[in-house]
């Protein structure tokens, strides 16, 4: 035992001696300085990139019609972010294909856009829960396929309230997959087949921060948004050489009916929560500037700080918020 202790003391003495060695001290000093320079450089780059994406883009707006084409498609367009994006596109002179399930709401939106922005619209009333709709969509898009410039995959669904996965109906799970995954997969294919021929076009996929971090109690929604993130990145790399820009939006809190149904009141009233029209204006302004962004500078700033934290800590906090939300919804 004494021999082991003696050898341990010798080992520690050797370490101390090495640390006192001037050349080793210089090495650690150089390593520390390099680390500081790297972190500072990365921070400056991210700051400048954020300014370019979120602020410079406002002064040098992309002409969407000239860059991509005269028609845009928006799925899930009659409420929330989808409606706001449709209005923003119309305000920039784009003709809009409106795709949603409620024909009455579609007609109202179509009439409003044509009257206020003097653009053309095309209505397609389908339910994305049904996987048999895509041949219908292909047929209805034929008149404008040579001028299709932008596809916005916005449609999504989530269960009515946060709850444990085993309490979600089988129908809700299947509908979520069809609406959140099948729709973006097949709508992207339809659009790309047209865009590739002309070697120009843009696809904008609306995801969520729930797809970056595990979000318990809305597990199926979170998982489908993780698919959107990865799918978007793959398409971006795959079709960039063919002149197609694929961009992924990862918003945080936006005041929509879906958002209010899921999150608690404190989250809804958060300082980073934006209205749909503010978010849409900012998101469209970033189009073609990057391949992935929150779409809104406040969200990007908040995400920058969040990404500095350990994922386990963030997900623990999210779980706590979701439990609080679930309990408050039960009481109501």
TrEMBL record:
GO cellular component: mitochondrion
Chief location bin: mitochondrion
InterPro entries reported in the protein's UniProt record: 17-beta-HSD3-like, NAD(P)-bd_dom_sf, Sc_DH/Rdtase_CS, SDR_fam
UniProt-annotated location(s): Mitochondrion
Membrane-spanning residues: 27-51, 202-223
Superkingdom: Eukaryota
GO MF assignments: oxidoreductase activity
Swiss-Prot/TrEMBL keywords: Membrane, Mitochondrion, NADP, Oxidoreductase, Transmembrane, Transmembrane helix
Stated family: Belongs to the short-chain dehydrogenases/reductases (SDR) family. 17-beta-HSD 3 subfamily.
Protein name: Hydroxysteroid dehydrogenase like 1 [Sarcophilus harrisii]
Organism per entry: Lepeophtheirus salmonis (Salmon louse)
Gene: HSDL1
